[in-house]
Amino acid sequence: xxxxxxxxxxxxxxxxxxxxxxxxxxxxxxxxxxxxxxxxxxxxxxxxxxxxxxxxxxxxxxxxxxxxxxxxxxxxxxxxxxxxxxxxxxxxxxxxxxxxxxxxxxxxxxxxxxxxxxxxxxxxxxxxxxxxxxxxxxxxxxxxxxxxxxxxxxxxxxxxxxxxxxxxxxxxxxxxxxxxxxxxxxxxxxxxxxxxxxxxxxxxxxxxxxxxxxxxxxx
Length: 219
Hints:
single chain, Arc Repressor Mutant, subunit A, alpha+beta, 12% strand
């Protein structure tokens, strides 16, 4: 992926939207595969608990740890598109922050290997799940074990009205129109939005990324 490294350096220097689109085009397949895995196959920990198990050797009961796990596709609270958009936003952040003296490809895939969507950090999202799947507690070296610590973080209190007002001031006309449509049609797909705006689905995805990045900057 030498092209990615060269394009990433050029984007870092010029902030060109054209180059950014080329980067996302080259990475689209990898991003989609990663998002699909995270949404349909990856398991995240919801709760840890202990149970008593009868030990045949000692003929006594002993305590063993268990976890309740869930997959994002089973929560019915979000779609694959939501995960893919979040991943696109992460890639954009990596482009903005990486050291241009080093290969972007190595930095990208090392970071995305352990990437988890922001939903997993939302204490209300985790607490609201009805998970029934129980499995053995992962090994201490298993990176999934840290998810329980992430889940118990309390969200910061924020003034939503002020944030939204500040966000709207920084949006383009096209971004404002898209948010108004989403407000009235929350279930509309990116493909349907693309038809309304007479643009590609990739452009709609880029608009979502831009909006989320602007929102994050005012928080």
